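Allow me, if you will, to draw on your knowledge of protein folds for a short while. I have a record of one protein: its chain in single-letter code and its fold written as discrete structure tokens. Could you please explain, in whatever detail you think fit, how the structure tokens follow from the sequence? The record follows directly beneath this note:
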Amino acid sequence: MQRYLSLRHPSRRPSLPVTVEGTSAQNSDATDTNADAADTNADEKSELTKTGIPTATTAALPTEPSTKVKRVDNYYSSWSRTWKYRNTGARVVPEMQRSAGDATTDPWAAYCFVVVRTIPRDPNDDPTFKVTVKSAYLREVCKDVMQVVDGLSWNAEPLEISPQLLVAFHPHFTTYHAELQAKPMPTPSERACLDAVSALLRYLETDYRSTLARIRNLTAHGEITFDLLYALLVPRTILITSCPSTGAPLALRLRSASLVHTLTSAFYDVVCESIDAIDFESDVGTQGSVDATLRRTGGGRTIGRVESRVLLVKFNGTVKIASLDAYPLDFHPDSKEQKRQLIERGRKWVSMMGVRHVYYRGRGAFAVSGGRCKRYAKFNIDSRVMVDRGDTRFANIIEIVPSMLQIDEIDITDEELMLTTPVIYGFSLSDKLWLELNIQHIELIRWNPHAFANLVLPGARRALLQSLVEAHNAELGFDDFVPGKGAGLVINLFGPPGVGKTLSAEATSEHVKRPLYVVGGGDLGTHAEGVDARLKEVFEVATRWRAIVLIDEADVFLERRSMHDLKRNAMVAVFLRHVEYYRGILFLTTNRIKAFDEAFLSRIHVALHFTHLSKEAKAQVWRAFLLKAGMAESELDDAMVNVLAKREINGRQIKNATRTAHSLAVSRSERLRLSHILETLDAMEAFAEEFAAVSPR
């Protein structure tokens, strides 16, 4: 069962301060590999195999801590065909002659730590090293300084740590040592810890003197080589990289880095974590049960840690650290400003938790391939969007904490804000796509307060529509005798194309400040099963968003059923059932319907018939679109508008002509004038005549 933890971290300082001292040693940067030569007599004396590593005698801290350091070789005896120990640079040691599991006579118990050099069986291979921690004080020091390291348990016996990992943490051990040393009146435990960390530092600064010097010299100039890259990949380091879908800066906390060798090269597999929104019910349900005390938030949304990976491929020579695909944030050219921007962005990201109706202008993306290296399709978005995780899912959750909808209610640190993703998940209402969006490009919606007034409808009908919508928006509570049935508002808009049906739904959306979710009648499918599933999805999403739904060109569902078309009858029955139980505002537009199905007549609250636009109506539409395109009121004289209103075009064509004329003016670096509009209309009419000439009669 996966365990979910709190985002709050334990204190960075030890509950029991720890540090230790030890003896100096030979330089491991250039180790003598000839120490594996042992005679058969020595082999006969040594009985300690590789599995017989000495273990600690007690978990309690000793009263008299040791600062001694021991060095041994772990080698393979070809005579006895076993792995054995001996003092480094000497023959087999008699003290090693004991049984593997005898913890009461641990010959290493008197040492602070033991440096074990493993001599490979193949003389062409290099020896490897490990540090076996024996001092309980040094164990506590390492635990406090290194904290959580993947693959390392502080309860392990024996506790073995790679010298390379210790070298990577050398600056942290140095800082820890200085803090303990600066204490005016240290406790006995603190003095013991100081001795222990001193011993460890002496070992590192002796055996790895040249390595530490190279690291200091390179990093001081913002450079690194691949063989020393491990020195930058310290667990809990904040890395900066680029978000694969948005390209925005992304901060990650490093958990582990593993060097992987391939046939032709090598790379570091860097496992990191960041903070993202998680769909509690969908994501966690696949991960295992969750602690019953974990609070849920509205819609099951939580904030949690998610895992990600970065691959750092081997490179030659010396490179700038800031040129790596991921590198420590401290090496950013302006790390302080970058941190500030990340924290500020994190606050905005948290404020977008839950469902939000916003405006987005920028790049959007969706994944076209999965796996470790996702590929994204990216394009420009200029649309209102619904911020909602929708059907996007994270399966790599590693930790969850509750989240609220208001940032002030979330106990989240600046570092955690810095680790939030730049990605916000949303649905583009214009493009009808679920996308990954950049939080930086999200804006508040500027509602049009004059949208309803600009509707080309008789005053009485416009007032009726406005009253019905406002009454339903106020949720007066009138319902059917059957709970949940007949609680919606169904409005049918019927008439020829381009006379303002869709515009009426858009104006209603603007008036009540709700999103408009447009679905084409053809998008619902041609089979009853598909229509049922699609309508269920549409109405569920619309309910969650509190959106107005517009089903465009719904003729096939509203027209009278016949005895001979059983397939369409089944589709109509499904449509009727969903409409009956939808509790929101629903617009249905139809163009050429001959006769309404009687079952629908009783379910439609109001039907508005749109006719071809009169000259006066077209003049009103022209004026509205030209003003929106940026033409000054003084330039819109009645004579000009009357000339345009004489053209035989509908409202949609007026909108398209205005947009095309505006683009034409912009391309010529000119202000929009009548000449641009007339040029566009002439081109449209010429195309219509040519199309009519070639169309079959």
The first strand starts at residue 69 and ends at 77.
